[in-house]
């Protein structure tokens, strides 16, 4: 089911017939392959769970085939900016009532690995500040909340099969803390051969590489199937605050919680103003009278530059979401949440061969259109502080921020937004980053930093204004201890003292 009203390309009857036949054959072959895997599972309880998961995957796969064959595209002329009641400003929200915290649970999306930053295991265990990981900081925040307001906000972690074992081991250290931590796994779906559209795994026991976690849109189904949703409802919880595990700005905000309860909204998406670094971020639109999330992948090529325009689409989705738990249960049981499918192409190694595969993924933000009273709240930029790269890591480790009860706060003496930092490939992995920048430079007065090549920073370095350091291949630049670089370009193989 496509999110948008169809705008069909002209096709001949024979073309439709061919596509329908191809879709039917591919669906039949996939169903047979899945049934064979299910039949091979001996343990009844394991088989029942696996069968349910494969049935859900097959429904997604069949919908992907149907959408692909239909030739539907978004009608750009039907898009307009959201109405005033569909996107509201955080500054207009009323003061919070702390009593509402008893209705809240927090969920962190914890399915990702730290491989893109050169780390092994869950990304949530990477050290980000003062020896503490993403997970440590999340626990400290909620523990402080529970202690300060004498409440009981639980923390849920949605793991993937890639992160579950390590996470289960790590959460043991929080026993005795004033926080209840619950974990559950999102689905495990088979990767698909791009050419044949058949599943890569031959059995449930096949290697991890044959499977994938299907994106955070899987949260609704997994909450229900794991039993965690019913547990929360039995505890009197009404609202779930969902955010990416690596967004250090995603703390519990009682004002947004209070606003959600007062308005009766079933879904609130936090948006923040775009900068030129965020032009690809998804944004809320009104499409034929309904609020929707528009992602860049859905935009026709001829309108991509318009989509990136900060003037037309002023804010973007932070993936900080507030969702009504009863609404989730109602919609999942009615099989009513059908969001856009994101075909993600990957290359994996099978034997000695590189194989092109597909992963059919979904995003939790796209579900906004299914919830009553859903709308966006434009929040301060401080609520969006993701750490996707070592450039982001440098920012959150710097003197620009300080820790307060597990939350990062920007130094009040900083004027304007955070600086733009671009570190080159030598700094891509955390190990390389740490060896080249063993001591964080002071960047309180920095506007822009670009560093490429074999560059190493000494102790007590200060960066101000715009600093560009470019080291040529085969050369080296060492920034001496105590250097102050202000509005400077450093290139070649020269000592800073020569500039």
What does this structure look like?
With 499 residues, the chain is of the alpha/beta class. It folds into two domains: 76-383, Spore Coat Polysaccharide Biosynthesis Protein SpsA, Chain A (Alpha-Beta Complex), CATH 3.90.550; 390-498, 3 Solenoid (UDP N-Acetylglucosamine Acyltransferase, domain 1). The chain is built from eleven helices and 26 strands. The chain has helices spanning 13-39, 44-70, 134-149, 164-170, 219-225, 228-234, 254-263, 304-308, 325-333, 390-397, 430-436; strands spanning 79-80, 87-89, 104-110, 127-129, 132-133, 155-159, 181-185, 189-190, 192-193, 211-212, 239-244, 267-273, 283-287, 290-294, 315-324, 342-350, 353-361, 375-378, 401-404, 407-410, 420-423, 446-452, 455-457, 462-470, 477-479, 484-491. The strands form eight sheets. It has an eight-stranded mixed beta sheet with strand order 2-18-12-15-11-3-6-7, with helices on both faces. It has a four-stranded parallel beta sheet with strand order 21-22-24-26, with helices on one face. Strands 1-13-14 form a three-stranded antiparallel beta sheet, with no helix packed on it. A hairpin with a 2-residue loop joins strand 4 (127-129) and strand 5. The termini are far apart. Mean pLDDT is 90; it is low at 1-18 and 495-499.
